[in-house]
Specification:
306 residues, alpha+beta, six-stranded antiparallel β-barrel, six-stranded antiparallel beta barrel, 6 helices, disordered C terminus
Length: 306
């Protein structure tokens, strides 16, 4: 009987043409891979891809906001290789989280992951990341270790004084409410883990030894030093009473097509993500649309987005 290949993502590892050249994984990683695989999806966009995971039996899938924004069409590819159209259902722009929903009948093979508790993690606890790095079709597992909790500001500080100075210049140009939101974003809770995550893994889960989700992949310096949004933030979005945004779709060429995102609160806010770097071109994130003055703004640590 042919042994199923478990793809393990290691630093600077390229996908091999020969499956038997894939590195062997330990027994715990192998079991988790088999348990988690039916829950992981690849999210295809107009230009690029990301990762996500099922959170219930109704076709709801968690991912990062920066994965799905900037794309009119979303396609979810399940572990059996089948594709399904999807729509954005909920969005938390401050914590870079989104929930999308499969449009139509939900595949029975899609298995929701159980949500755990990131606050129980201790330094050097084993954790595993899952996703589709670089848009590769095989799902990869990344064994690693939890390190510590931190904030977006901590990530910014780690980037050096030049990056901090650029961030301050951006904040100074914002309206008061824009600045308030950006400062809140820098205070958002995150946690650091020594897990190898690469572009395309954004939105994938990080799980503990029991296979429960403790975080969502968000930032990485591609040196196996990654930052994750804690699962508690996802739980809050799932239980949100008053949605911050509404999403308008039209069916074009038999596909649900995003035509507009409207902020439900009023004030001199920017349109969602307009002054953030959410579209990747030539390894650089650029704005999908200019600001009202016809110019675009540089981001701060957004260049780290996966």
């Amino acid at each position: 009987m042919t042994k199923e290949i478990i793809h393990e993502l290691k630093p600077k590892l390229d996908p091999s043409d020969k499956d038997n050249e894939q590195p062997e994984v330990d027994a715990v990683s192998r079991k988790l891979f088999m348990d988690v695989a039916p829950s992981i999806v690849k999210i295809n966009l107009d230009d690029g891809s990301g990762s996500g995971f099922a959170i219930d039996k109704d076709g709801d899938i968690a991912t990062d906001a920066h994965v799905v924004l900037g794309s009119k069409h979303l396609t979810v590819v399940t572990s059996d290789g089948k594709s399904y159209n999807a729509k954005i259902k909920a969005l938390d722009d401050l914590n870079d989280l989104a929930i999308i929903k499969i449009d139509g009948e939900v595949p029975k093979t899609l298995k929701p992951l159980e949500l755990g508790d990131s606050k129980t993690l201790k330094p050097d606890d084993n954790v595993w990341g899952f996703g589709h790095p670089n848009g590769w079709d095989p799902m990869y597992v990344s064994p690693g270790y939890f390190r510590n909790t931190e904030s977006g500001q901590d990530v910014l500080n780690a980037e050096g004084q030049k990056t901090q100075d650029n961030a301050k210049k951006i904040l100074d140009k914002m309206t008061p409410k824009e600045r308030e939101e950006s400062q809140a974003e820098l205070k958002r809770p995150m946690f650091n883990a020594l897990v190898n995550i690469q572009h395309g893994s954004s939105g994938g889960p990080i799980v503990d030894r029991a296979g429960k989700v403790v975080g969502i992949a968000d930032l990485s310096n591609l040196d196996s030093d990654s930052d994750f949004t804690p699962v508690e933030t996802l739980k809050a979005l799932m239980n949100e009473k008053t949605p911050k945004f509404t999403f308008n779709y039209k069916t074009i060429d038999n596909k649900p097509t995003l035509t507009d995102i409207t902020r439900t609160t009023v004030g001199d806010y920017r349109p969602p993500f307009e002054d953030k770097l959410i579209v990747q071109k030539d390894d650089k994130f650029v704005n999908p649309k200019p600001n009202s003055d016809g110019k675009t703004r540089d981001g701060y640590y957004n260049k780290l987005f996966l």
